[in-house]
């Protein structure tokens, strides 16, 4: 299958490679000419055969809106736009309505996998009309992990990004729990090998997970996380999850507390946030701040 891909950063670039490895034709565009296959969005559209599919992997908000507005002018009826970034689900509804006026389909895809997706595949949560989702099935099958799981048509437009938002909210709470346990172990005199305690949990325990594996990776690189500042950013999806919980009267005490802990990290050099910063760097390549810089 042929597809255009806009945004060739840490995830978009790896997605292009994974799709090509699966035999698909990918025309990529990025504002960095060293990464781009074409010189402009117009060139990308012109390089594709109708009906065209263009997958957008740029930051949420104004950058995504700008690309979709431009594609609305360039694409034709029966073409499809996929937003695979971390857009808010309410933006999906707006984009779908804008594009439908021109006969252009819209699909929202929540994508999880971070910098490991090229090797392991990406979990995909997709929203949109069945006609457009089914057309893209070969692309989803190439991107997802091998085996029966890792892809779901979650519902109508917005459902994919809503599901990904909840996924990220759960991720916040899980990382917070590992971070709190790590800080407590580091605080007592009787435990003198915290890293190996974490490693011992990787097999046979009820709390084993990929996040735990990544925590061990981080501790192997910096046993006491002494080179990190206890400061962790949030992508925005944790906030949206809490806002959606309030709107729907759903109690989310663990996720809400984990979000507030990140806010607290910006006031002090929090030991727990060293672990969360390390985990975000491990799975997503997110930037960390060094203790020396602080």
From TrEMBL:
One of its GO terms (biological process) is D-gluconate metabolic process. Gene3D superfamilies: N-(1-d-carboxylethyl)-l-norvaline Dehydrogenase, domain 2, NAD(P)-binding Rossmann-like Domain. The active site is at residue 164. Residues 160-294 form the 6-phosphogluconate dehydrogenase C-terminal domain. InterPro entries: 6-PGluconate_DH-like_C_sf (IPR008927), 6DGDH_YqeC (IPR004849), 6PGD_dom2 (IPR013328), 6PGDH_C (IPR006114), 6PGDH_NADP-bd (IPR006115), HIBADH-related (IPR015815), NAD(P)-bd_dom_sf (IPR036291), Pgluconate_DH (IPR006183). Keywords: Gluconate utilization, Oxidoreductase. GO terms for molecular function: NADP binding; phosphogluconate dehydrogenase (decarboxylating) activity. Belongs to the HIBADH-related family. This is Decarboxylating 6-phosphogluconate dehydrogenase.
């Amino acid at each position: 299958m042929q597809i255009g891909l806009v945004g060739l950063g840490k995830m978009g670039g790896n997605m292009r490679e994974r799709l090509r490895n699966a035999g698909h034709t990918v025309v990529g565009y990025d504002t960095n000419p060293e990464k781009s296959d074409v010189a402009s969005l117009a060139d990308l559209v012109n390089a594709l055969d109708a009906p065209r599919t263009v997958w957008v992997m740029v930051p949420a908000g104004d950058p995504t809106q700008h690309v979709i507005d431009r594609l609305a002018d360039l694409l034709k009826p029966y073409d499809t736009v996929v937003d695979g970034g971390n857009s808010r689900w309410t933006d999906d509804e707006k984009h779908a309505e804008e594009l439908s006026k021109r006969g252009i389909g819209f699909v929202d895809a929540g994508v999880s996998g971070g910098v490991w997706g090229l090797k392991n595949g990406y979990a995909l949560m997709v929203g949109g009309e069945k006609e457009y989702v089914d057309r893209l099935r070969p692309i989803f099958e190439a991107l997802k992990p091998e085996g029966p799981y890792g892809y779901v048509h979650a519902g109508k437009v917005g459902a994919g990004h809503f599901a990904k938002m909840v996924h990220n909210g759960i991720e916040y709470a899980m990382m917070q729990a590992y971070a709190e346990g790590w800080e407590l172990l580091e605080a007592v005199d009787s435990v003198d090998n915290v890293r190996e305690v974490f490693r011992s949990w990787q097999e046979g325990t009820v709390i084993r997970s990929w996040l735990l594996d990544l925590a061990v990776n981080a501790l192997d690189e910096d046993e006491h996380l002494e080179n990190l500042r206890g400061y962790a950013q949030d992508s925005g999806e944790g906030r949206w999850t809490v806002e959606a919980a309030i709107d729907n009267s759903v109690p989310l005490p663990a996720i809400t507390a984990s979000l507030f802990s990140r806010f607290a990290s910006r006031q002090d050099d929090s030991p727990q946030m060293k672990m969360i910063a390390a985990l975000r760097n491990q799975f997503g390549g997110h930037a960390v701040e060094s203790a020396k810089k602080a």
